[in-house]
Amino acid sequence: MATQARAPAHFSVNLAQLKLLGVDNPLSRDAVELYDVHGLSTQDRLFFCLWQNSNLPTRVFNPGDTIAMRGDRVHFAHVVLSGDMAASDENDNFTFGAGSVIGLAEGMAVLPHSFTVTARTPVTTRFISIGDAQHALTGINAGLLGLCRTAIARTLGLKAIPEQRK
Amino acid sequence: MSGFARVQFKKDKTIFSAGDLADKLYVVEQGAIQLLDPRFSQPFARVAQGEAFGEQCFLSQGVRSATAVVLEDAEGIAISGEGFRKLLASQSPLVTSVFEALLLQLHMHNTLRRDA
Questions:
Q1: Taking Cα atoms as reference points, which of A102, A85, A103 lies closest to residue A9?
Q2: Maximum C-alpha span of chain B
Q3: A105·B106 Cβ contact <8 A
Q4: Which residues have a Cβ under 8 Å from the Cβ of A2 and sit 6 or more positions away?
Q5: Distances in Å between the alpha carbon of A96 and those of A8, A68, A93, B46, B47?
Q6: What percent of chain A has pLDDT over 90?
Q7: Inter-chain residue contact A79 with B104, CB threshold 8 Å
Q8: Does the pTM exceed 0.90?
Q9: Residue B105 is nearest to which of A9, A105, A153, comparing CB atoms?
Q10: ipTM confidence score
Q11: pLDDT tens digits along A92-134
């Protein structure tokens, strides 16, 4: 039986719409009103917070660069600010765009990269050192830690919640 | 601490529904909650001891994307959205960034799972 070609699953925020907003503080009352007027989604708003965060360092990848290799240990997680990427896991191919987060849950759970990700266009990311992130979470409030562990487990489809690395 | 309250829920109670204003985060200490996809009324996550749900309250005026129903009699802590934001603000700025990025990655993986 012939199989029908299917476009790979895709993830990206609506970057063009976000760039039109021009607010300084993504959690301000003005910003919240803009989110409402423009009907931004939760993922748009989370991306907006990270996009505005100049405390996180930036990295640029050229077309053809490998951003992550499935199975490799995660040293840095990337939040993609712009660009298009091809990605794959053991079963499927995907396309990633702005707003994609690569390797964070895996790194925090001390698991290897889930995806191989290759830049198709110039890609700009903000990156997070996994070592720094784990250190920052040491000793935080139990509720916050529980939420982070739940988010990691739900992201990775794990039944057991990963313990923080000491 | 202001913004924190102990809560108890009986089996089958709906704690919140998809589309509700997200005003609280819950940390489960005992029992279990299931999260349902509103489009299919199918469970997609089980939340139990030491886990948390309701993270949309991190964003002012955020709305619930799932329905939470008590699977087994449950106890825990409810944290108001304002209390949660104050709690995050008292931590290292990197904690906030990690938290935002983890939630964004969770949205991304949910989207990919739906569409793959």
A1: A85
A2: 43
A3: yes
A4: none
A5: 10, 12, 10, 28, 29
A6: 46
A7: yes
A8: no
A9: A105
A10: 0.84
A11: 999 999 999 999 999 999 999 999 999 999 999 999 999 999 9
